[in-house]
Amino acid sequence: MEYKVVERFVSINGEGRLAGQLAVFIRFAGCNLNCSYCDTQWANKGLVTYESMNVESIYEYIKSTGVRNVTLTGGEPLLRDGISDLLKLLSEDHELFVEIETNGSINLKKFSAISRNTISFTMDYKLPTSNMESEMNLDNFSYLTKNDTVKFVSGSMEDLEKAKFIIYKYDLIKKTNVYISPVFGQIDMKDIVQFMMDNHMNGVTLQVQLHKVIWEPEKRGV
Ligand SMILES: C[S@@+](CC[C@H](N)C(=O)[O-])C[C@H]1O[C@@H](n2cnc3c(N)ncnc32)[C@H](O)[C@@H]1O
Ligand SMILES: Nc1nc2[nH]cc(C(=O)O)c2c(=O)[nH]1
Ligand code: SF4
Ligand SMILES: [Mg+2]
User: Fold this and answer.
1) Residue 82: helix, strand or coil by DSSP?
2) Which of 13, 18, 31 should be mutated for ligand 2, with most atoms under 8 A from CB?
3) pLDDT mean values, one per 10 residues, the chain (222 residues)
4) Domain of life of the organism in this record (predicted)?
5) CB 181 less than 6 A from any atom of ligand 3
């Protein structure tokens, strides 16, 4: 199985539970959604330049970096047939901790058989601002554990209200890690903090994309 890889690099992880730690990134081409705010739309275009890599060459690259946190992202990394083969190989190397950024539309049930000790899903719940909310697979919440994360990328008060509704309806704080992140530059983070205070959102973590604070927000490969 060949995968279209549009970027591979080492940086600090700017998002998620391991934000601030070194991570090696593999970015796959193509996505089945089209979020209004997507910061990697370039990776989803048909004519994007990519490298063909297979499971072995991806694994070799990861190991060659000496970095133990791995982030698989895109585009939508779980879109490819055969991505389970890569997840299985990576799960067998207990030196690695693998995070998969996924868009909430892909059924996670099919990955239940893979050993999940060192494999963690960060599932976005796409809010109204994204225009992609109708694509969310709500069954996915039953496959997430405390090793995983649900992320609500919010660009408006309407988004925050919807995030609150979903968090409590599905009891997400008990099941998994819950993050709120601003659509970069589109909402005042003070308003998010105020919303969290007004609604007693204990157990929810606010996070800004660290790499966009450190480098130019549009910079690739960081
Ligand atoms: C580019 S996506 C790739 C993985 C997958 N397609 C997804 O949406 O989760 C990686 C993460 O970046 C977030 N993201 C994309 N554009 C953003 C923006 N303008 N501001 C904040 N987060 C953004 C997405 O919501 C997602 O959590
Ligand atoms: N530094 C850095 N951290 C990240 N964490 C998740 C990313 C992504 O695009 O999925 C990302 C990214 O693009 N850069
Ligand atoms: S799902 Fe992810 S990669 Fe696809 S358009 Fe939305 S943010 Fe971009
Ligand atoms: Mg990114």
Assistant:
1) coil
2) 13
3) 97 97 98 98 97 98 98 96 94 96 96 88 98 98 96 98 98 98 98 98 98 97 97
4) Bacteria
5) no
